[in-house]
Specification:
This protein has 389 residues and is mainly alpha-helical. The protein has one domain (2-385). Helices cover 71% and strands 2% of the residues. It contains 14 helices and two strands. The protein has helices at residues 2-10, 13-33, 43-61, 66-89, 115-137, 143-167, 169-185, 190-213, 215-220, 226-236, 247-258, 281-314, 318-342, 360-385, and strands at residues 105-107, 111-113. It has a two-stranded antiparallel ribbon with strand order 1-2.
């Protein structure tokens, strides 16, 4: 009874409600995505199971408080790097290759998991510990101390990024976005950050220009595979590759456009998109529920990010703040990239829409990340109103 009373008072029910709304949207969209009969598996039922397990993960996250997460941060990241190393160097019986990519581990009973999804949360913990520890030990902030902090952050990023960038370029961008988000709030001087971000933007634009006009240089000098250029071309001009790299994008923007204002209704889809229950689930929503339905989904994500931002602004513990900022950066990048690639605003990278796209690894990853925020919120309220303090 006492535990239930604590949950009623301290558990973030608003955040839980937002996740439930996203879960309902997900199950409805996935159940409709299967109407073409191309799948034998009922992914909607599986998605419900993943959500149940996801909430179990969230409640398990409450077993540890932020200080305990701080203590295990390096162990968690080390375990995550070990899993990534298994994917890269393990035998095919453990790390099977699917669709030409090695990203998964075969786990008894559970099945296939994608370790990079879990490492996101482990990386956020380690990054938050690095920044908060630095500020504790450095008494007087100087330009030199900021450079040291930036070096520590980049060193923390380097090891997981080494394994992930060869497995999945899209996921590596998620790690970069998490790092960028934490750097922005870490207190590092803009005299250092401004030229770095400006240089990074210039580098991205230069690579895009070379991908279109200087492919030989990228292939010969930088040893980049030719198929990566094709992704850029098919993003900029998908109609030149209608049966190849541009097929999914053409179908996605056609589906969303055909939904017009109110959509075609549940199971009213007419545009075929392969694997539309995963990365292209937003196109299903856009076609069946139109501009209004797609806007509602975007609004729900806005409310989620706004709620997490409010939590971050209320916190006083630096470690908890950096963890929450890392989670916000991760979710925001997922949402912007997934929706952006469905409407040709951004290149297709295979980034799922959080809590909406089908996939156990994605839901477990997001549940673990938000579980950290639930824990922070739960114990923060304890510290604020406990008689012991």
């Amino acid at each position: 009874m006492e535990l239930l009373n604590k949950l009623k008072k301290r558990f973030d029910w608003k955040l839980a409600l937002i996740i439930i709304v996203l879960g309902i949207i997900s199950v409805i969209a996935i159940s409709s995505a299967q109407t073409s009969g191309q799948y034998a598996t009922n992914f909607a039922i599986r998605q419900i199971i993943w959500f149940v397990v996801g909430f179990v993960i969230i409640f398990m996250a409450l077993l540890l408080d932020p200080e305990q997460y701080r203590k295990i941060a390096w162990f968690a990241l080390g375990f995550g790097v070990f899993l990534l190393a298994l994917v890269k160097f393990g035998p095919e019986s453990i790390a099977p290759i699917r669709k030409g990519a090695a990203r998964w581990l075969q786990v008894p009973v559970i099945g296939l998991i994608q370790p990079s999804e879990f490492v996101k949360s482990f990386f956020i913990l380690a990054l938050a510990r690095v920044v908060s520890k630095h500020h504790e030990t450095v008494g007087y902030k100087t330009l030199q101390s900021d450079i040291v902090l930036l070096g520590k952050i980049l060193a923390t990023l380097a090891i997981p990024l080494y394994f992930i960038i060869s497995q999945d370029l899209g996921t590596s961008l998620v790690f970069l976005s998490i790092t960028a988000g934490v750097i922005l709030v870490s207190g590092i001087s803009w005299r250092i950050l401004a030229p770095i971000f400006a240089g990074g933007g210039a580098l991205v634009l230069s690579l895009l220009w070379m991908a279109v006009y200087a492919q030989d240089f990228l292939q010969d000098k930088l040893n980049l595979a030719a198929f990566r250029f094709k992704r850029i071309y098919s993003w900029l001009d998908p109609y030149s590759y209608p049966t190849d790299e541009g097929f999914n994008l053409i179908r996605a923007i056609t589906a969303i456009g055909s939904g017009e204002l109110t959509g075609k209704g549940y199971k009213g889809r007419e545009v075929y998109i392969p694997e539309n229950h995963t990365d292209f689930i937003f196109s299903v929503i856009g076609e069946e529920y139109g501009f209004i339905g797609a806007s509602f989904v975007i609004i729900v994500f806005f409310v989620l990010i706004y709620h997490l931002t409010k939590i971050a602004l209320e916190l006083t513990d630096p470690f908890s703040i950096y963890v929450t900022v890392g989670v916000i950066s991760m979710i925001a990048f997922h949402v912007v990239e997934n929706i952006g690639m469905n409407i040709q605003l951004l290149p297709i990278t295979g980034i799922p829409l959080p809590f909406v796209s089908y996939g156990g690894s994605s839901i477990f990853s997001m549940s673990l990340a938000l579980g950290l925020v639930f824990s922070i919120r739960y114990y923060y309220q304890t510290y604020m109103f406990s008689d012991d303090r």
